[in-house]
Amino acid sequence: MAPAPVDHTRVDVPDHATVHAALRLDAAQADNPLLAPLPCGHAGTDSEPPRLDYVLLPHESECEGTAAAEGSGGAVASWGGEAMAQCGVGLPVAGTMAVNSFMQLLCLAFVGHLGTEQLACASIATALANVTGFSLLEGLASAMETVCGQAYGAGDLASLGTMLQRVHLILTLACLPIAACWLATKPLLLLTGQDHVIASGAAMYIAWEIPGLLASAAFLPITKFMQVQGVTLPLTLISLVSLLFLALASYLLIHTLALGFTGAAMALSLTLLFQLLLALLYLALLDPSHRLLSRCWRGWSLSLCFSGWLPYLAVAVPSCAMICLEWWFFEIVTLVSGLLPNPAVNVAAMTISLQSAGFCYMFSLAFGIAASVRVSNALGARSPQSARRAVGVAVALSLVLSVLIALFLLLIQDLLVLFFTGGAALDVAALVRELMPFLIVSQPGFCFPTILSGVLRGSGQQAVGTGVNAFTFYVIALPLAYALAFYPLSLGVAGLWLSIIVGEAIQTAILAYYVATTDWSAQVEHAEKRVVANR
Predict the structure, then answer these.
(1) Residues 84 and 14 in one domain
(2) 423 — alpha (psi -120 to 50), left (phi > 0) or beta?
(3) Does residue 300 share a domain with residue 160?
(4) Fewer Cβ atoms within 10 Å of its own Cβ: the N or the C terminal residue of the chain?
(5) Which domain holds residue 18?
(6) How many domains does the chain have?
(7) Is residue 303, in this structure, part of any structural domain at all?
(8) Which residues pair with 37 in a beta bridge?
(9) Long-range contacts of range 480-488, CB-CB < 8 Å, 24 or more positions apart?
């Protein structure tokens, strides 16, 4: 990577702020190959931290006075380079998220071999834990993609360490009311009309997930802290080791110690704690030269932890709402399936199909995160052209991804049914087979809006995504689900899946319109103000 040319019009003796800026810039460029210096730099001052004025693709410049003309070969290289950059972020994140998603699938698979009733209890508990707990934490943490991604692009590296500890505290405090809600699971489920046996079993299962919830409150900020800096492969390796730990712990607790289906919840919590421990060990001991912490970390500070909440929550609350409204819709659909005749079979089949969709959804979400990181970095670096290109590449990748996932599901559908039921629950297996065509057809509807939502997160437009999700899922899809599943058509779980497909199609169309009409130059200015507000 060629160094930036020396500007001979500047003062020869640099001041303290300039030296400090250069050291921070060198550290960032050494760790992230996607960063390359621009010919025209920005030194910064103590009151205005130095900006990482970088070209997102090394062969290109947007500095004033630089020739803007680019041949067709250069344009192709620009788009190809952006695709490689997004894959470089998205593929490791996809591996991480797929493994993490597979953890819940593995727990349900262990429980499914115990019987239909046990699977229904674990399924309801998993849905409730996602609705009231893990989705909230994920939503609150996702604002780090916006705030930290733009700060990283702007070169304000110290803000990343500040946000890491601040968000950890916010998520930990959020766990307190969530845990209280989980301990009241049985009466809450009975109020919704759930079967007494299922409500009791689900309450027992979810109580053992509370330690895992607290572990997630610490682990999620670490993942975002690393992702916005382009450090993703270690997270994939941590998740793979954790998956092996979960398989061993599940077998020991469920079968060797004969703890039954609650042993699966215990194993999941132990695994999430183990995963957090591995992440901390990586940051403290295995990170090369400890650069992730040394360049961003200013030490623990109560004043930093408890300050700056309002600017962060201004992004985090709509970000949380945007994610949760969609996540909750799918979990509500699972709960609604329990109100159909033969609830144990319907809940189990709906959960298996949605968990399978969720596993595939992790790949879309990973590339949504990649799009979010690339867009936020570009906006932080004041590069609207790079942001536009990142959006175009993200949309193209979503098309490819949806086709690949649909083909994959088509090939493994019989193995998927066998994996969950083990050939024991024949009624559940038969219903899952009936739902597989809906699952396959729905994949474009999962991929496109997920990646477009990542673009909105990267540009700080979460409020738009919140409104779109509220309208499509709760004004359109949920009433349609009732009409198709219960009255007047009475299609059962097939009707629930049809409502999902319709909702996703409408969501895709509206999000595509908003992204296509975004003024990226204006978003650059918004990003600069956001970085300053969150220091």
Answers:
(1) no
(2) left
(3) yes
(4) N
(5) 1-66
(6) 2
(7) yes
(8) 54
(9) 481/333, 481/336, 482/336, 485/336, 485/337, 485/340, 486/339, 486/340
